[in-house]
Amino acid sequence: MSNLDETKLDRSHFSVLALGECDEKEYWLSKLPEERWEAIELLRQMMYGYDPARARLQRVLTVAALGED
Fold first, then answer.
1. CA 44 to CA 50: how far, in whole Å?
2. Which pLDDT tens digit goes with each residue over 8-44?
C-alpha cells in the first residue's frame, strides 16, 4: 500500500492567506530532508497518478529464429 492510498484530504483544515502571511518555509525547514522528499513524492503521485504495474522498467522480449544451415 502506498502513501497515496493512506492519505485523506481533510477539507476542514484549509485557510486562505496572502502569500506573505504563510509560514510554510519555517515548517518545511524544520523537517528532515527525508520527510521533504516523501512529501514531494506524495505530491507527484497525487498530480500524475501512480500505477504499480508501470513503476518497473519495461522488458522487451525478442524471439529469434534459429537459422538452419
1. 9
2. 777 787 778 887 787 788 889 999 999 999 999 888 8
Question: Cα 37 vs. chain centroid, distance in angstroms?
Answer: 9
Q: How far apart are CA 7 and CA 19, in angstroms?
A: 26
For the chain, which residues make up each domain, given as ranges? 3-54
Exposed/middle/buried for 42, CB within 10 Å: 0-12, 13-18, 19+? middle
* CA distance linking residue 33 with residue 47, whole number of Å: 21
Q: What Å distances lie between residue 8 and 2, 18, 21, 43, 44, CA to CA?
A: 12, 25, 26, 13, 15
Give the predicted TM-score (pTM) of the model: 0.52
What does the CA dihedral 56, 58, 63, 64 come to, rounded to 10 degrees?
-120
